[in-house]
Amino acid sequence: MITIIFLWSVVLLYSFHFAGHLHNIVSNVPNWSSGKAEDMTRYSNFYHKGNNAHFFAPVIFASIIASLVTLILVWNTGGVTRSLAAADLLIAVAVLISVFTIFRSINDYFASGQYEENKLKQLVRKWLLFNNIRFVVILAGLVISIWALNSYKV
To answer: Is 32 exposed, middle or buried (0-12, 13-18, 19+ CB in 10 A)?
Structure first.
């Protein structure tokens, strides 16, 4: 029973993560993706009390913890469920690594308010490219988590 709960929790956390990025892509990114300093400043000012990290950080860390616990719980089952749980854990860790290696420095530059036009446009393009890749990777994690849930035999 506990294993089913954790398998479901991984599905739900990937669902939250995917939905959060979908919302971000549809409603937030268009406000600053032009790469113009005035759009970035306006958007930065909008987030003066909070930011997207307040949602994504707990979801990312919870995904890692739930995926790790799930992998431990299904370890002895072998087969496809264990492989899928391991893949979900790897995806969750990869997403966290991407935040620190790619997105954090770019987001810090975006929040700085000190923009050089060419650098800003280049970083916006880079952020958009890697965000699209991250979005697909999180979708893969969601699909894999559903597959793991369906493959688990009680």
So the answer is: buried
* Tokens representing residue 145 in the block: 């988590």
Number of neighbours of residue 17 by Cβ within 10 angstroms: 25
pTM: 0.91
Q: Could you report the per-residue pLDDT of 61-116, keeping only the tens digit for each?
A: 999 999 999 999 999 987 899 999 999 999 999 999 999 999 999 998 988 888 99
φ/ψ (deg, to 5) at 114: -105, 95
For residues 70 and 10, the answer to whether their CB atoms sit within 8 Å is yes
What burial class does residue 113 get, using C-beta atoms within 10 Å of its C-beta: 0-12 exposed, 13-18 middle, 19+ buried? exposed
Which pLDDT belongs to residue 46?
Answer: 72
CB 132 within 8 A of CB 8: no
- For residue 48, pLDDT beyond 70: no
